[in-house]
Structures are given as C-alpha cells and as structure tokens.
Write a structure and sequence with these properties.
207 residues, mainly alpha, globular, membrane, L-lysine exporter family protein LysE/ArgO, transmembrane
Length: 207
C-alpha cells in the first residue's frame, strides 16, 4: 500500500506542478479575493473536477469516451476558444488596486470558470488519461484505491496551497503593481497553451 501511495502522490504532483491555466486561475483568485474564504469556491471546484477526471481515468471510462476522433476535435475546439477568451479576460482585469474590488469574481463565476478551465483543457484531460490511467493498471483492490486517493489528495492540497500563496501576494501587494504583472504573465501563459491546443485542433481536423 505504501508503494501505491507514494507512486500516486509523486505522479500526481509531477503532473499538477507545471504552470497552466488551471493553476493560474486558482492563484489569481486567491490574490484578488479579499480573504481566503472567498476563494474557496474556485479551490473546491477545481479539486472536484480533478477528482472526477482522475476517477474516470482510473476506471477507464474516459479512454472509451475520447476514443472517438470527432469528440476529440470538439473538445480541442471548445478548449481553444475558451482559453483565448479567458486569457483576454485576465489580461484586461484588475488594472489598479481600487478597481480590483469591482473585478472580483462572484462564487458562481469562480465555479463556472474553474469548471471550464479544468474540463475544457484537452492537454490536462489527455495527461490524466494517458499517465494516471495507464499507471493505475498495475494495481488492483486496496492498492488501487490507495493510489487513487493519493492522486486525488495531491489535487486538493495543491489548489488550496495555490490559493493561500495568492492570498499572501494579494495582501503584500498594496499598490496592485504585482497583480498587473501577474495578470499579464498569466494571460500570456494561457494564450501559449491555447496555441498548442490550436495546433492539435488543426492536426485533428486534417487526419
């Protein structure tokens, strides 16, 4: 069981660590909200989405769904358009500390964006299926359950930690200058991911 736990923990941590749209959004909300509690909707939603993806990957359900090439094309297309829109929204948001109050997302909007950036990111979905799903095959019974719990636990701990880190930056950055820079950098990262997804979309269309 210990081997299964360590395997799942290290694997999930390695997958979730790279800076991507999901991580950027959770961190940003932690920084923009007036306190950590108000950022909990994005943390919980992102973690629940990861829990669903990991569970489906380990059960093998998601492999069946994405075996249809036309469905992959739809996922890539929606993901590309959404990330372009999200990048633009972050790029133009919170130009000053005073205006950050008006730009803070409600709980409902946080959840909507978190669901979208978690489930409309084809690379995250395919990584979960290809890596976590395939690595879980070597386990059965209790070991497989422990492996699953370890992978899911990493997501919950990571997203909460990101929100905490963002909240610390939000309190330290009294002028809002660092948030402006962070937003620009975040938007550029999201657009970069969108470009890669756009490339995959073109490839899938001309297969």
């Amino acid at each position: 069981m210990l081997e299964a736990f360590l395997h799942g923990f290290v694997l999930a941590f390695g997958l979730i660590l790279p800076l991507g749209p999901q991580n950027v959004f959770v961190f940003n909300q932690g920084a923009l909200q007036s306190n950590l509690i108000k950022a909990l909707p994005v943390v919980i939603t992102a973690a629940v989405c990861d829990t669903i993806l990991i569970t489906l990957a380990i059960l093998g359900v998601s492999v069946i769904v994405l075996s249809f090439s036309w469905l992959q094309t739809i996922v890539y297309g929606i993901g590309f358009l959404f990330l372009i829109y999200m990048g633009w929204s972050i790029w133009k948001s919170a130009p000053s500390k005073d205006e950050q109050v008006e730009s803070k997302m409600s709980a409902k909007k946080q959840m909507t964006f978190a669901i979208s950036v978690s489930l409309l990111n084809p690379h995250a979905i395919l990584d979960t299926i290809g890596v976590i799903g395939s690595n879980s095959i070597s386990y059965t019974g209790l070991d497989k359950l422990v492996f699953t719990i370890a992978c899911i636990g990493v997501s919950w701990i990571w997203f909460f930690s990101l929100a905490v880190a963002g909240s610390v930056l939000g309190r330290v950055d009294t002028t809002g200058k660092w948030m402006i820079r962070l937003n620009k950098l975040s938007a550029l990262i999201i657009w970069l991911v969108a470009i890669f997804i756009g490339k995959e979309l073109i490839i899938s269309l001309f297969k």
